[in-house]
Amino acid sequence: MSGDVLSQSEIDALLSALSTGEMDADELKKEQMEKRVKIYDFKRALRFSKDQIRSLTRIHENFARLLTTYFSAQLRTYVQISVATADQIPYEEFIRSIPKMTILNVFEVPPLEGRVIMEVNPNVAYAMMDRMMGGKGESINKITNLTEIETKIMSSMFEKACEYMSEAWETITDIDPVLSEFEVNPQFLQMVSPNETVVVIALNTMIAETRGMINICIPHVVLEPIIPKLSGHYWMQHENKTRSPEESKRLESQIQQAMLPISVELGTSNISVQDFLVLDAGDVIELNQSIDKPLIVKVGNVPKFVGQPGKANKKLAVQVLDSWKGRGGHDE
């Protein structure tokens, strides 16, 4: 929290001083006008623009929707996940802001360098585990060292969430997230230097009656190669991109070379199961197709043409006569 934020007692004392005349409101305004210097804290270096933070928020809004669907299916209960805030802070401040014992999922995101942390509040994590084990989704506030079974259940559940992180990021870049570490003590997790800028996306999470937070911490080193893609200009270009004539021509050429299965239906017939069971080599089945009627030519099991049988170079063949009109007499 910033040191400029006043406590409730300080606010009450300030209002009391203004009302009794101990302080002059006009003098306060004058001092505020004269103070034009803005203090810059080098420990809180702002390395991302507001536009880039908005892009990251948009990505994780999609990620939150995907997680809501995934956990709803896995836990079979009401789940609601949404983005609460997105901010850039020093890594040290992020570590201080989370509980001393919590659930930490560390993901590698190749081909990008560095690692991403998904911190899950113990309230949420225990509620999820309780549902996975057949409970009502009840939770506890305190987390101790997890048993091997608890660790396996939780890590397996969040490992599958990797796929949805990849899907949410595909509009910016292709990543292949892999769960590399599962930890409960933030002090054992020193990914970057304490003053390194990280982007923290906080997700409001509700599992049945349990509420908590899921925090996603992304270091600057991870985002550095794709920072230009986080601008609004890139998003507009990406959305409005159209194929060039060369690309369209190349695509058309590739489609024309695609192989399609073609079959000709000589006719059909209905026989009883008893007759079918006694069929033998040399038996003749009468078809309901007259020899003077055209045959149906199918492309991928879909009627497309009508033709007549014949021979070409001593091989059986069919000559296309017309397009298939269908039962209503129209082309299909």
UniProtKB/TrEMBL annotation:
Entry's Gene Ontology molecular function annotations: cytoskeletal motor activity
Membrane topology: Peripheral membrane protein
Keyword Manganese part of the UniProt annotation: no
Keywords attached to this entry: Bacterial flagellum, Cell membrane, Cell projection, Chemotaxis, Cilium, Flagellar rotation, Flagellum, Membrane
Coiled coil: none
Cell compartment(s), UniProt: Cell membrane; Bacterial flagellum basal body
Protein name per UniProt: Flagellar motor switch protein FliM
Source organism of the structure: Bacillus benzoevorans
